[in-house]
Amino acid sequence: MRRGKANPLLNNIRIxxxxxxxxxxxxxxxxxxxxxxxxxxDLVDVQVTRKRKNYLEGYVTVYHELSKDRVEPFCQxxxxxxxxxxxxxxYQMQLNLKQEQVLEQLTRIGKLQLPExxxxxxxxxxxxxxxxxxxxxxxxxWLTQEEIERSEEIERSPALGFHVPGKFDRVFDVNECYLxxxxxxxxxxxVGVFAREQGFSFYNIRxxxxxxxxxxIRTSSTGDVMVILSVFEDDxxxxxxxxxxxxxxxxxxxxxxxVVNPKVNDTINDLEIVTFRGxxxxxxxxxxxxxxxxPKSFYQTNSQQAYELYKVVRxxxxxxxxELVYDLYTGTxxxxxxxxxxxxxxxxxxxxPEAIEDAKANSQINAIGNTFFIAGDMKDVLKPSFFDEQGYxxxxxxxxxxxxxxxxxxxxxxxxxxxxxVYVSCNPATQARDINLLGDGYKVIKVxxxxxxxxxHHVENVVLLGRIE
Length: 469
Fold this sequence. Notes:
Elements: E1 2-3, E2 8-14, E3 17-18, E4 24-28, E5 31-35, E6 43-51, E7 55-65, H1 91-108, E8 132-138, H2 145-149, E9 159-163, E10 171-173, H3 184-198, E11 212-219, E12 225-231, H4 236-249, E13 255-260, E14 273-278, E15 282-286, E16 289-293, H5 303-317, E17 324-328, H6 334-339, E18 345-350, H7 353-365, E19 371-375, H8 378-381, H9 384-390, E20 395-398, H10 407-416, E21 420-425, H11 428-438, E22 442-450, E23 460-467
Parallel strand pairs: 5-7, 12-13, 17-18, 17-20, 18-19, 20-21
Antiparallel strand pairs: 1-2, 2-6, 3-4, 4-5, 6-7, 8-9, 8-11, 9-10, 11-12, 13-14, 15-16, 21-23, 22-23
Helix pairs in contact: 1-11, 3-4
C-alpha cells in the first residue's frame, strides 16, 4: 500500500464480489473496499477517495488483469454515466446477482422462512427498454478524466445530458443513449443543436440562472411520443422558437408540452404544464386495456416488462371473481384496472390526487365499473371506519415507493386481516422489513423476482403472503 497526499493508492487488489448497490467489492486489511465499474475477478490498483472505520471507497486507476466474466460495454458513456453500471457484466450474471440479492435481503433483513424462490424473470429487451428519460441542461459540460489529462485547451461548451453520479451540479453531454427507443436520441440532439445555434442560455445549476432547464421524453408502446420542455423563464418567443422547430422536425410527437420552473429544484409536479401542440397525455395499452398517461403520471418505465410483472401479481392474487380487493399505493390505477375483471370490486388508494383522477379516467375509458378510487395519505385513510364502510378486503395488493410501508399502515393491514397480501416492491430491503413487521400472522407462500432495469443493480420483487388461521 503506497500512501498519497491524503488517501492511499492500493496496488494489486483482487475484486471478489458485487454489493447490493451495484459497486464491486474487495477486502483490504479487514475492511470492505467499494469500487464502481469493476468486475469480480479483476486485479486492479485503486485510488481511495473515502476512508471510514469499517469500509473504504475508491476508483480503479489501473487494470492489471481483467476478469474472465467481463464483457465489453456497448455505450461510449460507460464509466462516466451512472445509469447502466453493469454493462460490463453478462446479462445472465446480472440476473444471478439480483436473484441472490432478493434471497439475501429477505432472509437477513426480514429473517423470513422462504419457500423455493422462483427464478428471476429477465427482460426480453436489455436495450431501449425505457419509456421515459429526463435530461438536464447545463451551461458547462463535465470533462472526463481523459480530457483533463490531455492537458490541451478544451472548450467548456454547454451540455444536454445526465448528471454525473454524486455531483448535483455536473452534467455530461450525451451523444447516444441506449435506454430509450427513437426518436428519443434524435429529439435530444436536435434540441441541443438548435439551442446552441440560437444562443439560448443553458441553466447554471449552482448559481440558479439560465433559460433551458430540463427535457423529458416519454414514449409508449402505442406509438405516442411526449416531449416536455422545462424552462427557467417565461420567455414566449424563445419557447415558441424551440418548440416550433421540434414540431417541424418531428411530426411524430403527439404531445408537445412546456413548463416554466423558477424554483430551485427540478420537480414539476406542483407546476402548471402547458400543452403547446397535440394532446395533453399519451396512451399505453395492456391486454386491450387503455391507460391514459399524463405528464405528471407515474407509469412503469419498462412497459413490456411491466406487463410480465402485472401477470405475476394476477397469478399470485389467484382471484376467483367474487373478492373485494384493495390496491394500496395504486398510482394511476394500472394494477387496479388490470385486475378489475377478475374480482367483484377493487378499491385503489393513493396519496397524489392527480394520479387518482387518472385512475378514474382509465376506468371510464375502458368501461370498468367495479373500481373505486380515493386520494389520501394511506395511514389516514385506512382507519377502522373505512373498513366498516367499504368492507374488509379478501386480498390486498401493496406496491409502495422505495421507502416501503409506514408502520401505521402495517398496523392497518394487521387489523384488516386479508386472506392474501401480494407485495410488489422495487426495494427488497424495505419489503423484507415490512413483511417482518407484519408479524406471525402471515407466511411467505411465493417469491418472484422480476428484472425491470437491465444493466443496473435494481430489482423488482413480488411476494405472496398467506394468512395463518
